[in-house]
Q: What sequence folds into this?
């Protein structure tokens, strides 16, 4: 699978299938700090990502007007 990571931008090529929670751990990221997206769909930790998939991992950003 192709994993596109943001902030900093980089790309990994990993073998699948993997559960999303295992993928996040393999990338060395905290599961509560990122969103995993496949084809514009937000994935949950128990979803599976296949070998042929491309996913994007984005950091969670929160905030608002003061």
A:
């Amino acid at each position: 699978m192709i994993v596109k990571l943001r902030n900093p931008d980089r790309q990994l090529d990993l073998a699948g299938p993997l559960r999303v929670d295992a993928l996040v751990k393999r990338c060395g990221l905290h599961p509560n700090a990122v969103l995993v997206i496949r084809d514009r769909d937000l994935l949950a930790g128990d979803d599976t990502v296949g070998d042929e998939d491309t996913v994007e991992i984005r950091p969670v950003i929160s905030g608002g007007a003061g």
